[in-house]
Amino acid sequence: MVNYKKDDLDQVFSVLADSTRRAIIKELSKGENTVKKMAAAYDMSLPGFTKHLKIMENAGLVSFRKVGKYKYYYLQPKGIDYATEWLNELSSYWKSQLTSLEKYLLENKEEDNDDHDE
Amino acid sequence: MVNYKKDDLDQVFSVLADSTRRAIIKELSKGENTVKKMAAAYDMSLPGFTKHLKIMENAGLVSFRKVGKYKYYYLQPKGIDYATEWLNELSSYWKSQLTSLEKYLLENKEEDNDDHDE
DNA sequence: TTTATAGTTAACCATATGGTTTACTGTAAT
DNA sequence: ATTACAGTAAACCATATGGTTAACTATAAA
Questions:
Q1: Nearest-CA neighbor of B91 among A39, A79, A107, A114?
Q2: Which of A13, A20, B104, B113 could form a disulfide with B16 if both were Cys (CB 3.0 to 4.6 A apart)?
Q3: Of B27, B73, B9, nearest to A90 (Cα)?
Q4: DSSP assignment letter at A77
């Protein structure tokens, strides 16, 4: 790991790889919010929480506006779009590679009902 | 970090947060391949490379079939779908929350390269 | 049967990561 | 002027992560 440096997509996906940060994103998708208000929902110290916000900001997923002593954070969807695009391109390419049998099997899977919830 | 445990989505996004692993995924989207064949493209020891495959396998993104001394790895798209769904749900919810002005701005962004504030 | 090939395991290392506490700054309220 | 409140900074800690090398197993080829 001599010369390892995170690129943009690394950073975006790293943000998403943490359930606290995914929860923050969901929260912010409802609208902007202040640090303390959001932090209250998490079993974590305030400095711990603001570290997550800093990481998300560096990755370009959130920004904030300052009003007096408050910081209102809001989503910066461009960053998320970046990740979404990578996945969508992948899956469109991948699907174009499938044989018709594979496509048939894919259409008719139905029974893979693991809980995909959080 | 007393009791921190990665859940499914954590694992999937963690896989995606590494450019080597994203490259492996793209490679495998063209079809199955063996370990050494794939490893040749990376400036990394073989054990280092197989560690990545193990991580991807644990996250449910790849599987393999063994043929003699070869392991043929292939994509297991369910895992990736899981990540894609999370992002798509988010963005559909997020878009439904926008005001019509915001939607207008979103449609017509084209060039929004200024930092909002800070 | 010996040798080559494909891949894994184990031990190790440096840095990153997710968290803490304590002390601080800046703004608002009394 | 003092106190409360919102948030940051710094130092620290334990574990995770991405990598290495050396030694191994299993299958295939000579």
A1: A79
A2: A13
A3: B27
A4: H
CATH number at residue B83: 1.10.10.10
Are the CB atoms for B30 and B62 separated by under 8 Å? no
Query: Is the pLDDT confidence value at B113 over 70?
Result: no
Chain segment A20-78, per-residue pLDDT in tens: 999 999 999 999 999 999 999 999 999 999 999 999 999 999 999 999 999 999 999 88
In a domain, A15, yes or no: yes
Residue-wise pLDDT for B50-104, tens only, equals 999 999 999 999 999 999 999 999 999 888 999 999 999 998 877 777 666 666 6
- Domain assignment of residue A116, yes or no: no
Structure tokens at B33: 């391949």
Instruction: Judge: B88–A93 Cβ closer than 8 Å, yes or no.
Output: no
Calculate the dihedral angle through the C-alpha atoms of B36, B42, B46, B47, rounding to the nearest 10 degrees.
-130
Number of domains in chain B: 1
A52 CA vs D14 C1’ separation (Å): 19
Q: How far apart are CA B63 and CA B74, in angstroms?
A: 6
3-state SS, residue B17: coil
**Does some domain include residue B116?**
no
Of A13, A63, A80, nearest to B91 by CB-CB distance is A80
Kindly give the pairing relationship between strand B62-67 and strand B33-34: unpaired
Residue type at A10? D
CB contact under 8 A, B87 and A91: no
